[in-house]
Amino acid sequence: MPKLTKRRVDSFEIRAKAYFEWDSEIKGFGVRIMPSGTKTYQVQYRKGGRTRRASIGRHGNITADQARNRAKEIMGELSKGENPVEEIAQHRRAPTVAALCERFFTDHVQHRCKASTQSEYRRAIDLFINPAIGNFKVVDVERRDVSELHHKMRDKPYQANRVLGVLSKMFNLAEVWGLRPDGSNPCRHVPKYREEKRERFLSQYELQRLGQTLAEVECDGSETPYVIAAFRLLILTGCRLGEIQTLQWDFITDQGMELPDTKTGARRIPLPQAARAVLSALPRLPDNPYVIAGKVPGRYCTDLQHPWRRIRARAGLDDVRIHDLRHTYASNAVSSGMPIQMVGRLLGHTQIQTTMRYAHLADDPVRRAAEENAERLNGFVSGGHVGRPPLKLVGQ
Predict the structure, then answer these.
(1) Among 48-52, 224-228, 288-292, 322-326, the least confident range
(2) Structural element, H or E, at residue 100
(3) pLDDT per residue over 246-289, tens digit each?
(4) 114 phi and psi, to 5 degrees?
(5) Domain 97-176 belongs to what topology?
(6) Residue 138 DSSP code
(7) Is the pLDDT of residue 394 over 50?
(8) Which end of the chain lies in a sparser environment, N or C, as judged by fewer CB atoms within 10 Å?
């Protein structure tokens, strides 16, 4: 059993069955010759009463001397009680990020998240995460990998931050599931991009234009009555799109709309007379429980974005999103002097901080009152009050 060299390994014949040739210098170091002709350097040792074997590299890709040096390192680590071969094997068996994504989606997202959130997570996984790092081993992902993915999406800061949030949640669960060490989330300290919060409210004139356009498309039949009713209800109630889109007739009571499941849980929404009038004029289809009926029998209208783009273009409101109707509802409520806490209740906010984005609008009625009061006082000061001499200001 001489020393393994390139010449000797090259000379080993090919047999019908695989066999081993061992090195004379290092016990457990050898080469495996396959019937296909492939020759692979191996290290063999005993651990836990069992014989274990691991591949070092293929002959031709590494030299016999390189394989021998690696075998010495492995044997030295084994003598210290370490088990590098098992670590290598565990790494090979370790799940990829793509596999983690699927477990995250099936074991967590589908059971704990609402349908709209599931759709957002699925989109982030399929379009951004898997193409970038799906083939990485979960244990190998580092902060620089996440930072690089986030940086590549810098032209879409909002989407980049949402993807970062999905990744962070996923790697937190990877720690819970024992796939990464505790406290090793690679998303930590990756700074989010600054997001410009849109606060687009429709003015009184714009609301009039929108109302006129809704009346026009209702008359010419270019949009269904259910689509038109959906936008009118959004304006009059301040509801989220999904709350109106999936509204069922059974949810409507004398107290309002009793929604069993919203973004913030079960919720009762007041239904003013103007909104009830919209509902009363809407045809109720047999065998369809939904108020905003869609093209598919028994289902609700799943696409309100395309009709909205047509309607807003006709009204000359191309920069207005559907969600801006909710902002408009809130801004009108605050500007009219309604307490911010009451506005939050109408909108279904669970955190007052969410409603505080409209707080600056509460200054409008105060400014108007200040103007009216000052104008009235100025009438006295400037001599506008008949029957009395004008007052002189200090210093005159």
Answers:
(1) 48-52
(2) helix 97-103
(3) 999 999 999 888 888 777 778 888 899 999 999 999 999 989 99
(4) -75, 165
(5) DNA polymerase; domain 1 (1.10.150)
(6) G
(7) no
(8) C
* Cα within 13 Å of Cα(159), Cβ side: 14
pLDDT, averaged across the chain? 87
What pLDDT digit, counting tens, does each position of 172-204 carry? 999 999 888 899 999 999 999 998 777 788 988
The structure tokens listed for 390 are: 């004008």
* In the block, residue with structure tokens 């019908």: 16
| pLDDT at residue 115, rounded to an integer | 82
241-253 core/surface letters (b: 16 or more CB in 10 A; e: else): bbbbbbbbeebbe
| DSSP code of residue 15 | -
Rg over alpha carbons for the chain, rounded to the nearest Å, is 35
| E-strand stretches of 204-346 | 252-253, 256-262, 265-269
- How far apart are alpha carbons 370 and 366 in whole angstroms? 6
**Nearest one of 368, 364, 363, 393 to 381, comparing CA atoms:** 393
- Alpha carbon distance 249, 253 (integer Å): 9
- Token readout for 326 is 């909710």
- 78 and 45 in contact (C-beta within 8 Å)? yes
297 closest CA partner among 305, 309, 289: 289
Beta strand 265-269 with 252-253 is unpaired
Q: Which helix (H) or strand (E) holds 244?
A: helix 241-245
Cα separation, 161 vs 149, in Å, equals: 11
Percent of the chain with pLDDT strictly greater than 90? 54
- State the helix-helix crossing angle for 225-237 and 273-280, rounded to 10 degrees: 170
Angle 121-245-310 from CA coordinates, rounded to 5°: 95
* CA–CA separation, 154 and 158 (whole Å): 9
Q: What's the sign of the alpha-carbon dihedral 132, 135, 136, 138? A: positive
For domain 204-360, give the CATH number. Answer: 1.10.443.10
Domain limits of the chain?
6-90, 97-176, 204-360
379, 391 Cβ separation under 8 angstroms: no
Nearest by Cα to 101 from 22, 169, 199:
169
Architecture (CATH level 2) of domain 6-90:
2-Layer Sandwich (3.30)
Listed residue (142, 137, 191) closest to 164, CA to CA: 191
Tell me: pLDDT of 392 over 70: no
